[in-house]
TrEMBL record:
Gene3D superfamilies: P-loop containing nucleotide triphosphate hydrolases (3.40.50.300). GO terms for molecular function: ATP binding; ATP hydrolysis activity. It comes from Litoreibacter meonggei. InterPro entries: ATPase_AAA_core (IPR003959), P-loop_NTPase (IPR027417). This is SpoVK/Ycf46/Vps4 family AAA+-type ATPase. Residues 319-452 form the ATPase AAA-type core domain. It comes from the Bacteria.
Amino acid sequence: MSQSADLMELTEDDIRKHYAAAVAMLEGVDHTPRIAKAKEAPQAEKSAGLGTRRRFRSTTPGLVTRSTARPEGVRLIERVEGVGEDVLPSAVQASVLRGIRRALAIALAAGEAFSEATGLAELKKENLAGRVAEARRAEFGELLAAEALAVLFTFANATSFLLASQASEASVEIGAVEEILSDNAQLALHGALWELDQDLTLFASDDAKLVATVLAYAEQVMEKVALRAQNTPRLAAFNSASYRVEADNLTINGFTPAHAAKGTKLTMTFKKPNEVVGNHIAKYQSMKLAKMLMAYDFDRKLNPFAELGGFIFTFMGDGAPGTGKTTLIQMMAGLVSGYCETAGYPFRYQNLSTDNIDSYQGKSGQNAKAFINNVIDPNVIGFGTIDDIDQLAGKRGDRQSSAGQLEITAVLMESFAGANTVVRGNCTFGMFSNYPENVDDALRQRAGARFLVDGPITRDDYIDILALLMGKNHDIPLGDHTVFAAQEIKKAVAASFEGHSKPHEDGLLRVYERVSKDIGSLDTIAKLGTYLKGIQEADHRFTGRAIKNITDAVKVRAMDFELPDEWMEEPDLFLFKPYDEKKGMIEELRQPITVDMVIQEINRYADSEFRYADKSDEVAIANMVREFGLSEEAKRRYLESKG
């Protein structure tokens, strides 16, 4: 793949010249902790009544607040090789040490590049000679702090990336990382190795826990340093440039964690489109979206559909139990997986499930963020699903929602339409629910597209699904019917879209009829805007975000074409072409937007909101009626017992 203009190569020579310094740090450094305190494993008392606390504490005024921390020798090689009972280091231990050495060298090389780009290298030389001008001392201090954070983040980022393949199912909770120092790069690394040594002492009881501890520590450092960097000046040179380490396939993009471009091996049962009966619009849009994802350009890190409009970043599929939501997931995942296998692209599928809700404070949010980061990784084609989202994401203000569920809601809202959300077009998220009315309103509105999963509807649908599920091990005649003729996708979808020329929900239909009676046919922007205002008056939850979702859906309709199957089967015809050429090919297929498209998409979206609101209100009313009934019955029984 060609490199973008702002991508700077960190050559092997640039990295390997720092190996000696990295090994020296691993062999041993002395570090006096500035912020953190030494961690001690719980010790058993030597005898009853005799504790293990320090006996004396200074009471001299002024000395009581002075740090009593002493320099501590950090010998990480000895620490890692001492894990377990074998006197010889294991292959895992050797891999961990080599990974940390490599990460240290990459971090030092990135720091050197940062120094050259910002003029810090010259200031360091002047400082050694005692010639830094008074007017530049503040700049010198700020650049040293910026370099320290850049080097520290790069070290943690590279460590996490290089050791990702060693990860197992083992996990550890190391607590908060504290020794984040920004005086200079060397001190920052010494502090990091000191605290890593502390964590290894407590948690690395075997090889699996060793890797888990190092990875957990690297994740914590990245999170804390990225937060610190938001308010640190002179980091533009690090944020705006990308450093490429070709040998490791590692790209360092500022304070964004790198992920190994590896796909997940799917073990689910895939479904073919003709095995999905009914759900015509949902099936059609899923098939289109699967091909849209494949238009992503790994060099430009952008999808032409995301630039031109019409890319579905988030969607919600709702319907009654048993209507085929899981089948849709299996179909779409199977399509994308097959396309990626043909093109040689890494594909990553992940599902956020109830297993990610944790009683440990903050852990549920971390699990949700990890899920998001894994799917949005710009180096893979990603598909993330959140099945039964009403059980996972809590509704704010609902007393039944746990703290973990509310954490997940907050993460999903920020990730799907937050200030820092970037839609590259390499991934999509599907939220599915039997009870979408129980999903938080703001989170539900972050679903840009709505897939009504209504399952088989017509007589032909029911014959098709019966014939499909019966299989071939019988002699029952089919009768007067052509199997799957009703599932011909283009004909079925056209009929489904036309069905939304008028609203389906009673509340919305009243608004539509009233507005049409007052202003006539909805054939101008002004009249369509009047209709939208009428919907807002009927449902206050119909906000500006709803309008954006509708216009996005209209742009999807303008892209109402399927990329030819040959383009997926023979990647050279489309997938492997340069970005601008792919964009031009897509533009040629784009259709003009019509009034009918806009009306149909307004009705589709508003129907879903009215459906959710009506169900939500009815559920709330039914619950209150039940509570009032219980209160009345309890009161009656109480009075009878008194009488």
